[in-house]
Design brief:
Elements (H helix, E strand, L loop, with lengths): L3 E4 L2 E4 L4 E8 L9 E7 L5 E7 L7 E2 L6 E2 L1 E7 L1 H10 L3 H7 L8
Antiparallel strand pairs: 1-2, 3-4, 4-5, 5-8, 6-7
Length: 107
């Protein structure tokens, strides 16, 4: 997913960031609840998630004046802690070890 957005005077650009992982859910891409997300890290270690989905997904947007919903997309900055949680939730163990080596210890 290519996307560029400026949030609080910072430019987030998927073309200039490292894609760390991607995840999807909700069945097939044609399903109303389907969604997909990608986690990115910039050269200055800022984190952001880009996602898109159908009309019943977390990325749904309201239709103009119709009262219904349609699919949509979004880019949102996340904290390092939120990025770590995203990686853990989607079981990107190698990426956690690479990006957050000090946050994990053997039990």
């Amino acid at each position: 997913m290519d996307m560029v957005r400026i949030v609080e005077r910072k430019r987030y650009d998927t073309a200039n960031a490292l894609k760390v992982g991607s995840a999807s859910g909700g069945g097939y891409p044609t399903d109303f609840g389907y969604w997909e997300e990608e986690l990115y890290r910039t050269a200055t270690y800022a984190w952001f998630i880009v996602g898109e989905g159908g009309p019943s997904s977390p990325y749904a947007t309201a239709t103009d004046g119709q009262g219904g919903m349609r699919g949509g997309s979004d880019l949102r900055p996340v904290s390092p802690g939120e990025a770590y949680e995203w990686l853990e939730r989607h079981e990107f163990l190698d990426e956690i070890a690479e990006c957050f080596p000090r946050m994990v210890e053997d039990a």
